[in-house]
């Protein structure tokens, strides 16, 4: 059973950490304290809809989405992120290498979700 939670906001600049890790994201404000962790998601930007891996970052109050197979600048765009299925809870990593491996695994799980 899906989650189907919708969040709409304007894409804002982030810290660029996800870009440095090889997984660029779009970021919108998050004001729902009940949402955390990693999700399979769909992102609507204009008339197009993209599959994505999303991360609800409660610490920064941001919902990030890594759009699969997408490399365009969406700063300032109004987007809607629909969370569909929780992949895992948030967790801390001791270094960027461990985080990069976990993100790659999350993205693989999201791709698998969309295959079914």
Describe the structure.
This protein is α+β, with helices and mostly antiparallel strands and 116 residues long. It has a single domain, classed as Elongation Factor Tu (Ef-tu), domain 3, CATH 2.40.30. It has helices at 17-20, 96-115; strands at residues 5-10, 26-29, 37-45, 48-57, 62-67, 78-88. The longest helix has 20 residues, at 96-115.
What attributes characterize this protein structure?
2 helices; globular; 6-stranded antiparallel sheet; Elongation Factor Tu (Ef-tu), domain 3; alpha+beta; single chain; 116 residues
Structure, briefly:
The chain has 116 residues and is an alpha+beta fold.
* Residue runs with pLDDT of under 50 for 5 or more positions: none
Overall pLDDT confidence: 92
Can you identify the CATH superfamily?
A: Riboflavin kinase-like
What is the CATH class name?
A: Mainly Beta
How many helices does DSSP assign? Answer: 2
Proportion of residues in helical segments: 10-25%
CATH topology: Elongation Factor Tu (Ef-tu), domain 3
Distance between the termini: 13 Å
Radius of gyration: 13 Å
Proportion of residues in extended strands: 35-45%
Write out the strand line-up for the largest beta sheet, numbering strands in chain order. Answer: 1-6-3-4-5-2
Shape: globular
Number of domains: 1
H-E order: EHEEEEEH
Structural class by secondary-structure content: alpha+beta
């Amino acid at each position: 059973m899906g989650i189907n939670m919708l969040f709409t906001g304007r894409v804002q600049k982030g810290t660029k950490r996800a870009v440095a890790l090889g997984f660029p994201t779009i970021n919108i404000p998050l004001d729902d304290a009940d949402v955390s962790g990693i999700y399979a998601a769909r992102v609507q930007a204009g008339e197009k809809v993209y599959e994505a891996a999303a991360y609800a970052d409660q610490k920064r109050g941001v919902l990030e989405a890594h759009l699969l197979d997408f490399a365009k600048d969406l700063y300032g765009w109004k987007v809607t992120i629909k969370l569909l299925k929780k992949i895992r809870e948030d967790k801390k990593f001791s270094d960027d290498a461990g985080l990069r491996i976990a993100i790659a695994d999350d993205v693989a799980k999201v791709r698998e979700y969309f295959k079914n």
